[in-house]
Amino acid sequence: MTGPIVVDRARWLGYRWREHGLGGRCGDAALDRLLTLGFQDTRQVGAVQALAQRTTKVDGTGVADAVSADGPLVALWSVRVAPHAYRPGRLDFVRDALAPRDADEGGPAHVEAVEEVAAALGAVVRAPMPKGEASGEVTGRVRPALVEWCPRCEARHVPDRLFREAGRQARLVLDPDRRPGTVLRPPPDHPQEKVDRPRLALLTTYLRVNGPVSRPVYRDWLGGAAAVADLWKDLGDLVRVEIDGHRYDLPEELLDPLRAAPGATGVALVPPNDPYVRQTDRTLLVPDRERRQEALRALSGPGTLLVDGEVAGTWRYRRGRHEVAVTAFERVTPARRAEAERNAELVVGVLGDDRPKVTWD
User: Fold this and answer.
1) What pLDDT does 259 receive?
2) Which parts of the chain have pLDDT scores under 50?
3) Residue 227 DSSP label
4) 67, 72, 225, 338: which could join 105 in a potential S-S bond, CB 3.0 to 4.6 Å?
């Protein structure tokens, strides 16, 4: 029996670095693939900060204004029911690629629940509407079995995860204004791209962008509910790849580009949940456990300092002080520090703020 093909971790980093458009190398094709997977958002800030590390414009619009009610990008609840930014012509694709199926966790009952709440949301959200108001309207339209008591809200309503899944299936977008609370908007009137087998198309794009992956890693990125075993069988010719003792699958046609990938070069300051740090096996990306826990915290996590493909530290923007505080895990050369400080201007600039002070720890 033939064993796995061993690939150097530096090749893997270099492959992903280029495919993620970092280091000033994001062409139109790479950006389009990244936008097929979506940029995770936090009130439309995370997505534009991630984009600012890769490009200056999206379809002719500056990245600071790229997420808006009418595009070129809109935000909606997506994988892991987190907000992500996409092109408005791909909302049908996102809906269909992530729609729950009978074989997924929760089975037919969950499929039926999502469809029922989505229908109610589609009927309710006909104009911009605060999420709380929409939730109250939906609660009165769905079966009592889909409603539960929420101690935090001190009210009965559809559970938040189910509500978000249904919002995605209804193609509701999130209002781009950075106001308190979430405001839902009906789907934009935009022609939709037709994609055959959207679930498979999402997976093949993920592999093209990220290289070798395992089923558990991909399932975790989706949100942990989707059944992916049958989907894996539809990928065709796969090769088994080993990187630093970790084993993954890769379409055979991507093996040569992976093996030939040049090393990663450059610096980036990416926001929490940037595609480069989220769409991957994080134990391989950051082998050191303590560094991984510090850099990739799930709640209130910092941004990530990337140097030559490696997670080299963290950063936070202290807006009241107008300061980007960078904590490096190891010494960073003066040249790389200068690159990081130029990138700090980008992540702050998309917020409409002036050049910040950058401090190093």
Assistant:
1) 97
2) none
3) -
4) 225
Distance between CA atoms of residues 25 and 342, nearest Å: 16
The pLDDT of residue 178 is 63
Q: What is the dihedral of CA 20, 25, 30, 34, to 10 degrees?
A: 40
Q: Which residues pair with 57 in a beta bridge?
A: 62
Strand ranges (E), 168-309: 173-174, 183-185, 238-243, 246-251, 267-270, 303-307
Q: How many independent structural domains does the chain possess?
A: 2
Closest residue by Cα to residue 284 from 82, 16, 23, 3: 16
pTM of the model: 0.95
What does the pLDDT read at residue 225?
85
Q: What is the DSSP string of 133-147?
A: HHHHHHHTTS-GGG-
Domain of 116? 67-185
Location of structure tokens 């509500």 = 163
CA–CA separation, 304 vs 298, rounded Å? 13
* Domain-located, residue 10: no
Which residues on neighbouring strands pair with residue 314, listed in sequence order? 304, 327
Residue 132 located in a structural domain: yes
| CA–CA dist 34, 38 (Å, integer) | 6
Give me the pLDDT at residue 135, please: 95
Beta strands in the chain (DSSP E): 5-6, 39-40, 57-58, 61-62, 74-77, 83-86, 129-130, 148-150, 155-157, 173-174, 183-185, 238-243, 246-251, 267-270, 303-307, 310-318, 323-328, 357-360
Residue 287 lies in a domain: yes
Query: Are 180 and 271 found together in one domain?
Result: no
309-358 per-position pLDDT tens digit: 999 999 999 988 999 999 999 999 999 999 999 999 999 999 888 889 99
Among 305, 351, 358, 300, CA closest to 330:
305
